[in-house]
Design goal:
Elements (H helix, E strand, L loop, with lengths): L1 H11 L4 E6 L5 E7 L1 H9 L3 E4 L11 E8 L5 E9 L4 H14 L7 E4 L9 H12 L4 H14 L6 H8 L1 H4 L17 H14 L5 H28 L9 H9 L2 H16 L2 E8 L2 E8 L2 E8 L4 E4 L3 H5 L4 H9 L38 H24 L3 H21 L7 H9 L27 H7 L15 E2 L6 E2 L11
Parallel strand pairs: 3-6
Antiparallel strand pairs: 1-2, 2-5, 3-4, 4-5, 7-8, 8-9, 9-10, 11-12
């Protein structure tokens, strides 16, 4: 029925995308989907993609694989997801090809995936390794630190580390510092966090239909958080720390989350940075800017308004570094050049209409005018009834009159508009949001379902029932207050030991 549900959503919105494949027995082995909002999000934030699969979301042991990115509030944003029967190269190739088809063939600049292998080591090793990986700004520096690390810890014979070094151009930041925004995602922690978020709603060992209902709830919660952040960024103003015009401009353009990072760098440029020397080479000014971490070199062309720093923070994360901000200040440049205001970080970056390759508007279907009119009439009727009750509650006679009138109105409605109560089958279809097919065209991934029925959401009554038959052991040292039969006071005595007894 999950495939039927996806098909229904495709009919409601042509921008909804889904694909699936079955094996020779008609069992589903691959499934991929992305709704209109997800595809729109990817159009706005296609820079970096995090991908990590997880189990324990369904009773068929299919691998759940969400695609995650980062939005303009530095929040995780859902792009697409799918189910796979197995974790093979062929399965993942199909999944990524489906993703490209859904996103108009636009591939992300960088994909962060999980590496299953683990190595153990002491704290000193990990401290050195982190410095080697994350603080090496140039490939030569990384290789120098890596060889020193391997030599100092006598790991020349470690095959796993040797393979990692051979693949260094695929995972060491120093090799892709020039890839725009490659630094906003450094590990699969985003995907792991996203998986944990969905699991908090989804649970484990669910049928596909129940999985979909819970997954959709989780997705709506995530999107609601983005709307709340949008509202906060647009309608509130952050507190400024300096009198610099460049800070005020940033507060008006960037979302609050991005501005907080930008403001931190503006303040650091004022407090910690100092221009040591300035030279001119072929019309380009070269500044040496010092801070607590060392000296950086900033090249600034005042004609094109392009500045480049040796730390490459802007290229890596899309937010200006303290060194360039300090150079702008020294050059008496009070406004941010447009080249350093990335649209993906702006408050209103998602206002523009976005279309897919077939010309479909990537937007969830709005409520029809007819449905809006019905909702308005229902609200009017509800307000009238509430107002009548509010006016009538001061008199019992008036309340009786209102109850009689409502009872007569209800009887008239039944006689004039006789309705047939829905069957259980119809109620189930309304609940899951799609019709239940009479014939099943796509089978589940397994011939045999798990023993027992599908898990349901447990409530507080279940916890009460679970402990109903268990007798709690009384603590012999625990005293329970009671009322004295003589003085009628509540305490830890009775009539025999009452202090007021004469």
């Amino acid at each position: 029925m999950l495939v039927d549900q996806l098909g229904r959503m495709k009919k409601l919105n042509a921008a909804f995308f889904y694909e699936y494949e079955v094996d020779e027995h008609g069992k589903m082995v691959r499934l991929f989907w992305a709704d209109a909002t997800s595809r729109k999000n990817y159009k706005h934030f296609p820079d970096v993609l995090s991908f990590d699969s997880t189990y324990s979301t369904n009773q068929y042991d299919m691998v759940f694989a969400p695609f995650t990115g980062i939005n303009h509030h530095m929040q995780s944003v859902f792009f697409a997801a799918g189910f796979l029967a197995d974790e093979t190269i062929e399965e993942y190739t199909w999944m990524f090809q489906a993703f490209l088809r859904a996103m108009g063939g636009i591939a992300p600049r960088l994909i962060i995936t999980d590496e299953c292998a683990r190595i153990a080591g002491d704290e000193k090793f990990w401290e050195r390794l982190n410095k080697c990986v994350w603080r090496s700004e140039k490939p030569a520096k990384f290789e120098e630190r890596w060889h020193s690390l391997i030599s100092d810890f006598k790991l020349e014979g470690n095959v796993w580390l040797a393979k990692r070094f051979d693949l260094r151009k695929s995972w060491i930041p120093a090799y892709f510092m020039d890839i725009p925004l490659a630094g906003i995602l450094r590990t699969t922690s985003r995907s792991e966090s996203e998986n944990a978020f969905f699991k908090s709603f989804v649970g484990r060992k669910l049928a596909y239909v129940e999985f979909w209902l819970r997954f959709d709830t989780a997705l709506q919660c995530q999107r609601q958080e983005e709307l709340i952040a949008d509202n906060s960024s647009i309608h509130t103003t952050p507190t400024l720390l300096t009198t610099w015009e460049i800070e005020r401009q940033g507060s008006e353009i960037f979302t609050h989350e991005v501005f907080a990072l930008f403001q931190k760098r503006v303040n650091a440029a004022r407090e910690d940075c100092d221009v040591q020397t300035t030279t001119i080479v072929d019309g380009t000014k070269i500044f040496e800017v010092s801070d607590a971490w060392g000296v950086r070199e900033v090249h600034f062309d005042s004609t094109t308004m392009i500045a480049k720093c040796s730390c490459k923070l802007f290229e890596c994360k899309g937010i200006l570094c303290r060194h360039i901000i300090r150079v702008f200040r020294a050059s008496k440049l009070n406004e941010l050049p447009s080249i350093y205001v990335l649209k993906r970080w702006e408050k209103k970056c998602k206002r523009d209409a976005v279309y897919d390759g077939e010309g479909n508007l990537l937007e969830e279907n709005a409520i029809s005018s007819a449905e809006t009119a019905i909702r308005r009439k229902i609200a009017t009727a509800r307000n009238m009834v509430e107002e009548i009750i509010r006016d009538a509650r001061t008199s019992e006679e008036v309340i009786d009159f209102v109850n009689t009138g409502l009872s007569n109105l209800q009887s008239s409605l039944v006689q004039k508009f006789q309705t047939v109560p829905p069957t259980r089958h119809e109620e189930q279809e309304t609940f899951i949001g799609t019709s239940i097919p009479t014939q099943v065209a796509v089978l589940t991934a397994s011939d045999t379902c798990s023993r027992g029925t599908c898990a349901r959401i447990r409530g507080h009554r279940d916890d009460a029932k679970r402990g109903a038959g268990k007798k709690k052991k009384k603590d012999p040292n625990l005293k329970v207050p009671r009322q004295c039969g003589l003085c009628k006071e509540v305490g830890f005595h009775d009539a025999r030991k009452c202090p007021k007894k004469t």
